[in-house]
Design goal:
Elements (H helix, E strand, L loop, with lengths): L5 H24 L4 E5 L10 H16 L3 E5 L19 E3 L5 E6 L6 E7 L25 E9 L14 H11 L3 E7 L1
Helix pairs in contact: 1-2
Length: about 190
């Protein structure tokens, strides 16, 4: 970054970490029941060890106050990447390469409040429409249903085609499984 002072350069380097710290603090302050992360924790295939350690520290911080985290891996942080593994812990739920579901509970009383479904990228090259794999959990219709999908919606030519789907596909999936919310990390 030519022409940028050392102080500004350092602030820019720390800005991502500061944003993560602020998000974690907001979740703690607001006493949220859970956090969802829909892929591409790292937006580059060669994330630094410092970034990986800071992310794991943030997960630990959320765990200390019993905030659960539901996480899918995207094309920049697929399950087969050489990064530090985000392992399932009591409070961290990592989705695998097939659509899975977890039931999220309210922190205050432990009552079920949502079914969270998601699918992670096994590799960086997922070329099929994974939105079609989401199905309704008919045993839990009284709960909120949240789906997490990392996709290229409507074929944005400015981005690589990965897990391509259309808005129409997403609406059909939402209707099919009775979703209350869809969390998508999509390039538009």
């Amino acid at each position: 970054m030519p022409g940028v002072s050392d102080r500004i350069r350092q602030q820019l380097r720390e800005s991502t970490f500061a944003a993560l710290d602020h998000l974690v603090q907001l979740a703690v302050d607001q006493e949220v029941d859970f956090v969802v992360i829909s892929g591409d924790v790292y937006d580059a295939s060669d994330s630094s060890l410092q970034a990986q350690l800071r992310f794991h520290e943030a997960l630990e911080r959320l765990g200390r106050v019993n905030i659960h985290v539901y996480l899918i891996h995207g094309n920049h942080d697929p399950l087969d990447s050489p990064r530090i593994r985000t392992k399932d812990k009591d409070h961290v739920h990592v989705f695998g390469p097939k659509v899975g579901s977890f039931t999220a509970n309210r922190r205050s009383d432990g009552q079920p409040i949502a079914v969270i479904s998601g699918i992670s990228y096994p590799t960086s090259k997922v070329t099929e429409n994974t939105s079609a794999y989401f199905k309704r959990d008919t045993d839990k219709e009284s709960l909120f249903h949240i789906a997490m999908l990392h996709a290229n919606v409507n074929g944005d030519p400015a981005h690589e085609t990965y897990s391509p789907c259309t808005t129409k596909d997403l609406v059909a999936t939402a209707i099919n499984i009775g979703l209350w919310a869809i969390f998508i990390n999509a390039k538009r």
